UniProtKB/TrEMBL annotation:
It comes from Clostridium scatologenes. Gene3D superfamilies: 3.30.70.20. Residues 2-31, 38-65 form the 4Fe-4S ferredoxin-type domain. One of its GO terms (molecular function) is iron-sulfur cluster binding. Keywords: Iron, Iron-sulfur, Metal-binding. This is Oxidoreductase ferredoxin subunit. Pfam families: Fer4_7. It comes from the Bacteria.
Length: 65
């Protein structure tokens, strides 16, 4: 089964993915990347691999695997 995976090194904290996720599987984490942005995390149990996060992300953070 496909799931979304995130490369949080690329995340710039726009959180479009958080708003776009129909299952609320993406949330803002307490983790900060090297660029200083609070990054997202994916709840793999909730993720249905719909691709909405991939579609809205301007920084190519996501891939479906």
């Amino acid at each position: 089964m496909e799931k979304a995976k995130a490369n949080t090194k690329r995340c710039k904290g726009c959180y479009y993915c958080v708003k776009a996720c129909p299952k609320e599987a993406i949330t803002v984490s307490d983790e900060v990347n090297l660029k200083g942005y609070a990054v997202i995390k994916i709840d793999e149990e909730k993720c249905i691999a719909c691709g909405m996060c991939y579609t809205v992300c301007p920084d190519y953070v996501f891939e479906l695997v």
